[in-house]
Design a protein that fits this description.
The protein has helices at residues 13-24, 52-58, 106-117, 146-159, 164-174, 260-276, 281-289, 304-317, and strands spanning 3-8, 32-39, 42-49, 68-74, 86-87, 93-102, 177-185, 192-196, 202-205, 210-213, 226-229, 234-238, 243-249, 321-329, 336-344. The chain has 345 residues and is of the alpha+beta class.
């Protein structure tokens, strides 16, 4: 699962973001990594194929200016143009996302061709045309990266008079999936914007600064404040003072809620897994996804990743979670990532 970190406060964002991302990438991610900040009305970003250490070693990411920013790592290792952040054609918007897919992939082709007709270009366009290419596809059949379509959709709707928040919600709602999208707008350096469908995102609101992350394991140990789980199907604005929600909700999908029964069953299942031996995050995530007894069958899209992280955090707070770090090779090449191998104490 991808990892997301965000910071909005009085201090320089880049060192904080990269340390948060380092704390997260032991669970998953680390094959491609990126960061974006806003400073003096511009998006500043860097990304690499590799982990946080690679990003710091090969770029000046640690020195990026600005006190607001987002960072991302993902377990995929495809091409550099697939790494996050994705930046819009006008260079004013930056997007990172965590998710496994969309409910209707073919609709992405319609959006990509609409943008193409409007003059948008794509740095992720593959040439020559690939056989068995997957959507989104341009008019000549060339595939482009889905997230580059998504960030440019926000710019497209803003060109047509929508506010950034309205454009962000419209773009997210038009292509629903098991996702959470996080964006920066260079024209509004006061806020980080989050559109959450199902993937987890947590917020820590402290004294005059706010943090967001895929999991609260990322939050600094020495910062005290209030922690919130952002609700599904909402768009939030994360300021230095806290989290605000737009009045409109995303309506294009239904999501199974985490009920007390869901949590109890998930807790018992994860404890059973960890009691039997070491597990990595992928084991736990798949177990939560492939346990239909946890979820309402009428809402097949569930919050399986969130409940998994919630249980792990509870076990940590109970003093029962043990972990050790181990190295795993990428199945396609010799790239390595560090994983947390978890068990019960």
């Amino acid at each position: 699962m991808c990892n997301i970190a965000g910071y909005n406060g009085p201090r320089r964002a880049a060192p904080i973001l990269l340390e948060m991302l380092r704390r997260e990438e032991i669970y998953d991610g680390g094959y491609s990594t990126g960061i974006a900040t806003v400073y003096e009305g511009k998006i500043h970003y860097r990304k690499v194929l590799g982990n946080v250490d690679t990003l710091i070693r090969e770029t000046d990411a640690l020195e990026l200016p600005g006190s607001i920013g987002i960072a991302h790592s993902r377990p995929g290792r495809d091409m550099l143009c697939h790494a996050h952040p994705q930046v819009s054609n006008n260079g004013k918007l930056a997007l990172v996302t965590n998710g496994t897919g969309y409910l209707e992939w073919e609709k992405l082709t319609d959006s990509a061709r609409m943008l193409e007709a409007d003059g948008f270009t794509f740095t992720s366009r593959l040439d020559p045309i690939q056989e068995k290419a997957t959507p989104p596809l341009l008019t000549d059949g060339s595939p482009v990266w889905c997230l580059e379509v998504c960030v440019n959709l926000v710019e497209y709707y803003m060109r047509r008079g929508l506010s950034f928040e309205e454009a962000f919600l419209t773009a997210a709602d038009s292509h629903p999936g098991e996702r959470v999208n996080v964006m920066l707008n260079a024209a509004d350096p006061s806020s980080i914007f989050v559109a959450r469908n199902t993937r987890p995102i947590e917020a820590l609101v402290a004294d005059g600064e706010s943090y967001i992350a895929t999991t609260r394991f990322a939050f600094p140990d020495d910062v005290m404040g209030d922690v919130y789980s952002l609700p599904a199907l909402r768009v939030a604005k994360v300021t230095r003072e806290g989290v605000e929600f737009t009045p409109k909700r995303m309506k294009s999908m239904k999501v199974a809620e985490i009920t007390p029964r869901t949590y109890k069953l998930a807790y018992e299942k994860i404890v059973g897994m960890l009691s039997s031996g070491e597990c990595v995050w992928d084991d736990i995530e798949l177990a939560m996804k492939n346990s239909p007894e946890l979820w309402n069958e009428q809402n097949p899209v569930s919050q399986y990743a969130k409940v998994g992280y919630d249980v792990l955090w509870q076990l940590k707070c109970e003093g029962r979670l043990a972990s050790r770090l181990g190295v795993q090779k990428h199945p396609k090449d010799d790239a390595k990532r560090t994983l947390a191998y978890m068990s019960l104490k």
